[in-house]
From TrEMBL:
Keyword terms of this UniProt record: Electron transport, Heme, Iron, Metal-binding, Signal, Transport
Keyword Cell membrane set for record: no
Pfam family, one: Cytochrom_C
Domain Cytochrome c: 20-111
Protein name: Cytochrome c
Amino acid sequence: MKTSLTLAALVASVALGLAGTAVASEKLAQEKQCMGCHDIKKDGAAPSFKKIAAFWKGRQDAEASLMRTIQQGSVATGGPHWAKARMPDQAERPLVSEAEARLLARWVLTQ
Ligand code: HEC
């Protein structure tokens, strides 16, 4: 009895921890103004994060490539080029550190 309670508490805290990371990443995306152009589900000025995730699913270079776009804008990367508009580099956006770019790339890939 005691063991299963402890186990339940452990499972709950692990689940909370994972959900916490996803929430933190979404908050980061808002802070970095990603959501001004992107939406998770809907295409607008920029492709939706769901569409991007579906394209990159299973590709080994996905994380590194998305990190580069997130830090340097879409002109710095080979593509795909989704829209007529380009994603600007950091001269026109809040700075994103390498660690933040990694978090954001992983989060985008799980949408
Ligand atoms: C000013 C508008 C704008 C902002 C702000 C912006 N993006 Fe983008 N983003 C775009 C556009 C437009 C594209 C499509 C570019 C293209 O087709 O070449 C894009 C493309 C992308 C891609 C796709 C890369 C690929 O190769 O498939 C990712 C990932 C991405 N953005 C993530 C982010 C994240 C994370 C942020 C916040 C740090 C962000 N974007 C902020 C406009 C924006």
